[in-house]
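During the reporting period the student researcher (J.K.) took over the structure-prediction task from the postdoctoral fellow and processed the backlog of single-chain submissions. One of the processed entries is reproduced below for the supervisory committee.
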Amino acid sequence: MKKKTDKTAWFDEGFKLLKAAGAAGLTIENLTRALGKTKGAFYHHFKNRNDYSRQLLEQWEEKQTGDIIRDSQAQKTLETINDALVTLSEKAMDPETEVAIRAWALRDPLARKFQERIDTRRVDFLKNMFSLMTQDRDQVEFFSLIRYCFYIGSHQIIPTMNEHHYKQNLTALMKMFEHYIHPKK
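J.K. obtained the following structure tokens:
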């Protein structure tokens, strides 16, 4: 008896297609061909291509944002929250998919809605984290945006930074923030 393909396989294949061909390659035909399934198997799990796209983006949001924020929030100090954030982000980091979804969001209202929500959630989390460093709202906003731009920008550089280089630069950035608040004379 042939094993049923669950939704996870459809999502895994969707992320592969996004990386390889962008959103234009994310078709029902490409998905079914790659998985060796029929269109009927696709429609067993999803109402249509838009439903699939919505669920794929929900998977991305949960894996790359919800899970990381939830696990990082369990920590209590700026240092432990930041350490958890860095560790969890490194484990989940998928720069090619991040870039592909951002490109998709430039042309598709549904993907844009998800990307806006993801960016807002991530920046809000950073604001909460940096509020443990300073109560100055302008500094919290400034640090959060710079930190997030560093994260997103590191995905855009070709070739992407390796983990060691990323961590090294992030540590230096955090030290700069600390020095900004508490300059040494």
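The committee noted the following: The domain at 7-181 is CATH 1.10.357.10 (Tetracycline Repressor; domain 2).
J.K. will present the remaining backlog at the next meeting.
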